[in-house]
């Protein structure tokens, strides 16, 4: 089923929310230091990098399917067969990775929790428009597929997928934003280790 959305959800609201969350977290990021060190810290850091890389690859995977189809059809293939908002799923995984790279369980929960809350609220608003557009088709999809937390048992994909190269290219900018989290975390960790920033220990 296809349709055209007359008044799509304003993504500027989502972006503004994420920026406000970043500003709110900035003092915590600057003035707390990880309480773990040694091998546990290295394992957390490595897991964080893997999460960020997975987020970038996952977002590209989702764009391969939704590119050129957004707000025109109820996409139900590939990543959209395991959750309704895979871009938000992988963004949350990226936020989780950033927290892990800071080698703090508390920061991981805080960063990932705030991002997930903002993206869940965004998804709910988007879905009001999608239900108006697609009616029963979207209702049936929503009843079968979870919003953000994936259900891997429902995965399905056609043998061929048509790719919109323009949309894929535009997603490269978002990928660079996520990859920039790696040097950002490295810089924060170095500043704390070199005692350029002083803060209280946070597990």
UniProtKB/TrEMBL annotation:
Q: So which domain of life are we looking at?
A: Bacteria
GO biological processes: methylation
Membrane topology term? Multi-pass membrane protein
Q: Where in the cell is it found?
A: Endomembrane system
The UniProt GO MF terms for this protein read: methyltransferase activity
Q: Pfam families in the record, alphabetically?
A: PEMT
> What InterPro entries does the record point to?
Phopholipid_MeTrfase
Q: Does the keyword Transmembrane apply?
A: yes
Residue intervals passing through the bilayer: 45-66, 78-98, 104-123
Full protein name: Isoprenylcysteine carboxylmethyltransferase family protein
């Amino acid at each position: 089923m296809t349709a055209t959305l007359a008044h799509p959800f304003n993504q500027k609201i989502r972006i503004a929310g994420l920026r406000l969350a970043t500003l709110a977290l900035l003092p915590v990021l600057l003035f707390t230091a990880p309480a773990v060190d040694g091998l546990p810290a290295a394992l957390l850091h490595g897991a964080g990098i893997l999460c960020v890389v997975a987020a970038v690859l996952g977002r590209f995977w989702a764009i391969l399917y939704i590119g050129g189809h957004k707000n025109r059809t109820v996409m139900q293939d590939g990543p959209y067969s395991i959750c309704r908002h895979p871009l938000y799923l992988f963004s949350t995984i990226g936020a989780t990775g950033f927290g892990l790279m800071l080698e703090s369980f508390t920061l991981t929960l805080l960063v990932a929790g705030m991002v997930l809350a903002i993206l869940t609220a965004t998804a709910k608003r988007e879905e009001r428009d999608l239900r108006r557009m697609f009616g029963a088709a979207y209702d049936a999809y929503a009843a079968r597929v979870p919003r953000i937390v994936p259900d891997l048992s429902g995965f399905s994909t056609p043998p061929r997928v048509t790719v919109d190269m323009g949309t894929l290219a535009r997603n490269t900018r978002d990928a660079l934003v996520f990859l920039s989290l790696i040097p950002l975390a490295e810089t924060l960790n170095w500043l704390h280790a070199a005692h350029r920033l002083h803060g209280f220990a946070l597990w």
